[in-house]
Write a structure and sequence with these properties.
Pfam families: CDO_I. Belongs to the cysteine dioxygenase family. One of its GO terms (molecular function) is dioxygenase activity. Keywords: Dioxygenase, Iron, Metal-binding, Oxidoreductase. 13% of the residues lie in helices and 37% in strands. It has 180 residues and is mainly beta. The strands form three sheets. A five-stranded antiparallel beta sheet has the order 1-2-9-4-7, covered by helices on one side. The longest helix has 12 residues. It is globular. The protein binds fe (ii) ion. The site of fe (ii) ion has 4 residues, from loops.
């Protein structure tokens, strides 16, 4: 059993991360007093952070959107406790994939994973665990010309979609690639 009282004192693998996320999600006494919702900014609270793992509870409305991101060197897991989220996976040359994540659903990922999470149902709650703890993250933006760029951000920076991330590049690309 992997729970907050019995952590092994080392980095967790994906199975352990998924177990921990599910365990915390199934014990609302660990996070229920932290729940709040905001359409403008996802509401999130750190439940635990040590040298090997960090644990967050995140509250979602349908307006909340992380934008495309990765977790740098961290593996992670998500367990949905209430409501419903959608995980989006980026594809090249096609529409992104959408996977519904209703309450009771959990998934894990490695540091290779790029995704975007959005709220689907009102009053959704999820538990997110990362090992090693999040320190840097990659935030992605896609210009109107389809150019994908990664920006390294601190885990303390809230991830939000970037609408006009590279104005100079976009102006240059518009000049060279788009009919005026
Ligand atoms: Fe993520």
């Amino acid at each position: 059993m992997t729970d907050l009282a019995h952590l092994p004192g080392r980095d967790l693998d994906r199975q352990e991360l998924a177990e921990l996320a599910r365990h915390v999600a199934e014990h609302p006494q660990l996070w229920a007093d932290q729940v709040a919702y905001d359409d403008e900014h996802r509401h999130y609270v750190s439940l635990h952070r040590d040298a090997n793992v960090d644990v967050w509870v995140i509250c979602w409305t349908p307006s909340n959107d992380t934008g495309w991101h990765d977790h740098d060197v961290s593996s992670g897991a998500v367990a949905v406790a209430r409501g419903e989220l959608v995980e989006h996976n980026l594809t090249v040359g096609g529409d992104s994939l959408r996977t519904s994540a209703p309450a009771g659903h959990s998934f894990s990922f490695g540091p290779d994973h790029i995704h975007r999470m959005t709220g689907q149902a009102e009053a959704s709650v999820s538990v997110h665990v990362y090992s090693p703890p999040l320190w840097r993250m990659g935030q992605y933006a896609i210009s109107r010309t389809g150019v994908l760029r990664r920006t390294s951000v601190s885990y303390a920076d809230e991830l939000r979609p970037v609408d006009e991330p590279f104005p100079h590049d976009q102006a240059r690309l518009r000049d060279t690639l788009l009919p005026s």
